Amino acid sequence: MANRIIHDIFVEELKKQLVLPNNMNKPLIVVNFKTYETASGDSALSLAKEMDKFTDREFRMIAVASAFDLSSISKSVTNVEVWSQHLDPVGKGSHTGWLEPDVALHHGAVGTIINHAEHKVSLEHVEKLMSMLPEDFPICACAADVEEAIALAKLGPTFIAVEPPELIGGDISVTTADPAIVSDTVAAVKSTNPNVRVLCGAGVKNGADVRMAIELGAEGVLLASGVTKASDVNAVLDDLTL
């Protein structure tokens, strides 16, 4: 009981420190840094600073960084939101190797993705994690298909990102290869929980993909290599946010 009280006090103090944007209704450009060499350590910091240059446009810019880079990035950008790539529903104690939520918040995370195709977790994991985080802390749960999106929508995360695994990291955007999964996911999620917002990802590379995603009903995109592996990051970010 005492540990629970201490945790609640800690979370309330962190909520006071979180700087959340006043542009909550803007579509999102969520860049997953993964563990790419071009988006880790000093390179992660450089990439986040490049993203910061485009935060005056009609998009929320999100840098989904490694836990190792959360602190350095959050201290070095002005308007980019820094999210964690994963969190575990554990508290302080004997949890070697797990990503404890309070520490991520302490190091500057103002949101997180969870259940990415490259790091799947159970529905119970997502539900318990949500119960441990501040109410206004954005949580983006990833879904491989409409069925999984519906199951996640019942839990009520802030966002659901639909990403067919076979298209992740490829050169063909989900908006081209399977546009129906985007529109169908939007319809299914909204009918299950109208408060959940839908993003789409997998193969997203350019502004045309972003515009198509929005036309299909999504409220933003989740992408990685299209930005992290770009030879001209500035040009790609410019195109994505036009």
How would you characterize this protein structure?
The chain is α/β, with parallel strands linked by helices. The chain has one domain (2-240): TIM Barrel (Alpha-Beta Barrel), CATH 3.20.20. 39% of the residues lie in helices and 15% in strands. The chain has helices spanning 2-17, 42-52, 70-74, 101-106, 123-132, 146-153, 174-177, 179-192, 207-215, 225-228, 233-240; strands at residues 28-32, 60-65, 81-84, 112-114, 139-143, 159-162, 197-201, 220-223. It has an 8-stranded parallel β-sheet. Helix 6 runs parallel beside helix 8 and helix 9 runs parallel beside helix 11. Residues 1-7 and 14-21 have low confidence and may be disordered.
Question: What does the largest sheet look like?
Answer: 8 strands, parallel
Instruction: Indicate the CATH class.
Output: Alpha Beta
Number of helices: 11
| Rg over C-alpha atoms, rounded to the nearest angstrom | 17 Å
Give me the CATH superfamily.
Aldolase class I
- Please identify the structural class as seen in this structure: alpha/beta
